[in-house]
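Show me a record, fold above all:
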Amino acid sequence: MHERRTSRAATTGGRRSRLALVVGVVAAVLATAAAPASAVNVDHGSRVVSNDPANWTPQVMNGSVKGITQIGNRLVAVGNFTTVRQTLTSPDITRNGVFAFNATTGVIDPSFNPNLGNGSANSVDTDGTYVYVGGSFGSVGGSTATRRVARLTAGGQLVAGLDVPNSGVNEVVVRGSRLFIGGSFTSVSGTPRAGLAALDTTTGDVLSDVAVPFEGTYNGGGTSITRMDLDPAGTRLVAVGNFVTVGGQPREQIAMLDTPVGAAATVSSWATDRFSQDRNNCASVFNTFMRDIDFSPDGTYFAVNTTGAFAGGASSGTLCDTTTRWEMSTGAGQQPTWVDYSGGDTLYGIAIAGDVVYIGGHMRWMNNAFQGDQAGPGAVPRDGIAALDALNGLPLSWNPGRARGVGAEALYTTSQGLWVGSDTN
């Protein structure tokens, strides 16, 4: 029902593998490890990855993995961990919040060690030249001049010069020459920016054309963008989190912005009340029940994951503990194309790979719309990870299972398959 802050893995001693690659899309796809210029999920079409994960991925020994991206033949993982290992029985390697490894062998890069200090990394993205990391960290390589958002070379060296937000960054997304950051900040290097800003990837300066404020709170706490994503062209942005107005217009927990290149960002007419207080009775412990959002690789739709408990399921129309698909339409009154209910368990990470929507969380079932915390009519067992049909939201037969813990927050597709970062073994 609720988001548990402890993991089943806490009872399993030193077995702390929190990173996996599920491979086997098709042999031709596995032959190359190339990634796109920016970290948009690779479109696998109608193909589904294998049930059997690769056995050569490195081990993350504590904390959780919150973001994954690929630059060249390097995979970069970020989170709130401090220790990694090449194998479960090999020596500990200190890596504070970020590390890199070979995409085809899993060998940890011994020289890639930015050493994020006093906080975690929540998100990572790349433009093919640099790696961008966002989080709550207070230093990089011991220098406090860079904090909360950092630009790194492909080899992990800090490239200074990015303007500094005054509070935490939950998401970084780079499109072209613009680095979008979302979080709980109210200014960036003294320039007022409420929750959302864009930085020039060349100069590091705050851009004047993305200045739409996110304000208010859904259920107490502090105003914040929890997660966001942009379409591949970078002209539409969807953000979810703890807010109720965007650019002065009512937008409870979710908003779409038009973000044309070289022109001012504006609030889109796209709007829905399906995540509003009036339409939901999610558990009151959550300031926001939004957890993740991802655009399809072709930019034609997006999907959203939530927490919040059963709250009546489909019979009440709530969207607590669901995955929903949304179209790129215009106007108010938007409705989801489909809704898939877990039956009371949180859904976290989401990655759309063409006709397949991969989701991670600590769910026990999917398609469980009519019963809370037990299997109801139509429920399909799915422990911690699932694949949904992008057309109708129904669970596909793919069912590898994973130790549930709090949940898998980082899902990312490459030409190799599906990378999964979580908090369990």
Observations:
- The first helix runs from residue 27 to 30.
- Residues 214 and 246 are 5 Å apart (CA to CA).
